[in-house]
Amino acid sequence: MDLNADLGEGFGRWTLTDDEALLSVVTSANVACGFHAGDPATMRRVCEGAAVRGVRIGAQVSYRDLAGFGRRAMDVPRVELAAELTYQMGALEVFARAAGAGVAYVKPHGALYNRAVADEEQAAAVVNAVTAFARAFGRELPVLGLPGSALLRLAAAAGLPTVAEAFADRAYTPAGTLVPRTQAGAVLHEPDAVVAQALAITVRGEAATVTGAKVPVAADSLCLHGDTPGAAALARRVRAALESAGVAIGAFA
User: Fold this and answer.
1) Could you give a GO molecular-function term held by this entry (predicted)?
2) pLDDT over threshold 90, residue 227
3) C-alpha angle 181/184/186, rounded to 5°?
4) pTM, whole model, 2 decimals?
C-alpha cells in the first residue's frame, strides 16, 4: 500500500504542514503547485526533501484559489482549466528535476478533486493537462483519484495509468464518495478511528459509512491529510499499524 500526504501547503511566511516529519513516513508526496497553496521556495524545498528520502513527487493541482485553499467550487472552462493545470505540473517538474527526481503522478486537490468525481468536463480538463505534460516531457503520469470517478474513467480511456485512492481520515457516504467538508463529521479526528479505518480499507477492502453500513473500497494508495493537528504523529501511528498487520508499504509510482 502506498501512503500519500498533501505537502508544501504553505505560502510565504505561513506554513501549514510539517513537511519534514511527514516525508519520513509517507511514500508519495502530493506537492502543492502554487494555486491553492505553495510557492516556489516551498516547492523546491519539498522536492529536495522528497528526493533525498526516495519519496515520489506528485503534482497536486488545483483551481486558482489561494484565498479559499482550493476548496471553493469554481466554474472554469475546460480549455482554460487544462492550461492552468499544465502550468502547475510544469512548474513542479522544474523543481523536481533540479532535485534529481521528476514528477511521478498527478492528483487534483480539494474542490477540483471532488468535482472531477462526477463532472466529466472538469475531469476531462485534468486528463487533457496530463496528456499535454506527456507530450512536453515524453512520459505519461499516473492519475490518482477516487475509485469509480469520472476522472479515473476518462484517464483510463485516454491510455493513462490510474491509481485508486482511499482516505484514512475522511468519512464515506453509502455511495463510496467522500462526505462533503461542509457537513459535520466529514473529517475523522479521533486517532483510533483513523487507524481503524486505515486497517479496514487496507486489510478488508471496506470502510464504514456515516450511516454505519459498510461500503467496498478498493485502493492502491491511502491518503493521510497533512493539514490536520498532529498529522505527522498520526501518520506514523497509521503506518506502524499497517506494518504490524503485515501490510507492505511502498510507492505505486
Assistant:
1) 5-oxoprolinase (ATP-hydrolyzing) activity
2) no
3) 45
4) 0.95
